[in-house]
Amino acid sequence: MTSSASAPPDPNPAGDIPPDDIPRVAPTRRLSSRALLAAFGMMIAVGLSVYALFPESIGGPPLPVRVSLDRAPLPTTGGKVAVLTDVVTVTSELDQPIRHLTIILNGHYEITQASPLQPGGSLTLPQSIFTDKRSNRRFEPETQRVTEVLVRGQLPSKSRGVSKFTFDDSGAQ
User: Fold this and answer.
1) Is 94 inside a domain boundary?
2) What's the domain count of the chain?
3) Would residue 79 count as lying in a domain?
4) Which H or E run includes 71?
5) Are residues 38 and 80 both part of a single domain?
6) To 5 degrees, how large is the angle CA 101–CA 103–CA 104?
7) Does one domain contain both 141 and 104?
8) What pTM value is reported for the model?
């Protein structure tokens, strides 16, 4: 006697697996060359931005410069009258020019000098021309005091030198 309760009939008696049921190991999506380049570009941009935001944590050789805070008479735009202004003076102690000079006040306000700082030369800049990196607001020496000056520049060895100077409320180092 045969039992009427048997297994359901096999829909694929030959043992072939339909293409939709093939187990896949690798994902089906592929990264286009454009997306791959964009991902590499983002990685490089993040690395450079960390380097730019935290240069003192990266290390590197010190930049041989002196920094002083003072009040000095600077000519006005007309050039006929000099006005006593709060200034930052950076003096090179190197026997070769320092290129790509960037000066940052209090970690936020910066300026980049286009021309190299000559050997033994000084650069005197009014504090009011420094602008905030994020909002383009200017430094206001009447309401703010400089407590930190960070100077970055390219050394003759092509490496980047960084020197940090701290000042108390009176402007002394």
Assistant:
1) yes
2) 2
3) yes
4) strand 65-75
5) no
6) 145
7) yes
8) 0.63
Beta partners for residue 99, in sequence order: 154
User: Are 66 and 167 spatial neighbours (Cβ–Cβ below 8 Å)?
Assistant: no
Domain residues for 44?
32-60
The label of the residue with tokens 């380097």 reads 51
Per the listing, tokens 């000098």 go with: 113
pLDDT tens for each residue of the chain, 173 residues long:
555 556 666 655 555 666 666 666 666 677 788 988 999 999 998 888 776 666 555 556 888 999 999 998 888 777 688 888 899 999 999 999 999 999 999 888 999 988 999 999 999 999 999 998 788 899 998 898 999 999 999 888 888 888 899 988 665 66
**Torsion angle of C-alpha atoms 146, 48, 102, 165, degrees rounded to 10:** 40
d(CA 168, CA 170): 5
* 2 inside domain: no
Same domain, 153 and 71: yes
**Shared-domain flag, residues 99 and 126:** yes
Structure tokens that stand for 124 in this block? 């005197």
Helix, strand, coil in percent for the chain, rounding step 5: 20, 35, 50
Q: How far is CA 102 from the centre of its chain?
A: 12
